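Contributing new records

If you add data, match the layout below exactly. Sequence lines come first and carry their own label; structure lines follow with theirs. Keep one chain per record. Anything else will be rejected by the validation script.
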Amino acid sequence: MEVIVRDNNVEYALRVLKKKMQREGVYRIMKSKSAYEKPSVRKSREKAESLRRRRKLSRKGYI
């Protein structure tokens, strides 16, 4: 991931970087990797994420 700093405006570059990381889901991945997740909890979370993705696609008319 790359962010260009213009006119030594580091605060703006940090904001852009945080927004990019949020969009890519880096924060969610870091949070999930920070602690152990039981297999049953992982399975239910993945199932819920899959259902969420399918609903989103059906709303957009792809399915």
